[in-house]
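Protein details
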Amino acid sequence: MTAFILRRNLKIFVLSGLAGGTCLGIIASSHYGSGTGAITGLCTGILFGAAMYLILGFFHTRAVEKIAGAVTEKTIGTLHSRELTLDLPVEQAFDRCLSSLQRIGRCTVLEQDRGRGRIAARSSVNWKTWGDIILFDIALDRSHRTRITLSSRPSSRMTIVDYGKNLENVNAIVSFLKADQNNP
């Protein structure tokens, strides 16, 4: 297993172990005393953290591998971004970006500023995440083509695994924009 997968899985172990161990430790302390509560919390934290390390880590890695074809340091994370250039006027590209959000289930546009070339949207809660934030920055580049910077991340910055949802979002939008750029 590569280092970046181990680092991500270690975060899963520590955070879920702390949360599970603390909760059960507090409950056990209130019933059986602080000594028993501390031991119960520690044991529960280690066991729960290990279980989450194995389960969440495995399913996230497997989902990313299915979507991306390979697990890399870039694909394993929950924040995904891409830059692409379209041979379209900025106004048309802006409209295409808005249309591309239909590829993402139940997505709401939070901001659309044509002057700044900025679109912000949020997808609804699903079984993979508590919703995602999708951002577009659209501008004319030096060669008079439209440059689009796209990013998708979970709405909660505490999210460690998203089972490839934000990678799916970016891939779906890029696919839509590239396929439609010659069809005004």
The beta strands are 80-86, 107-113, 118-123, 132-140, 146-154. The longest strand covers residues 132-140. The first helix runs from residue 3 to 32.
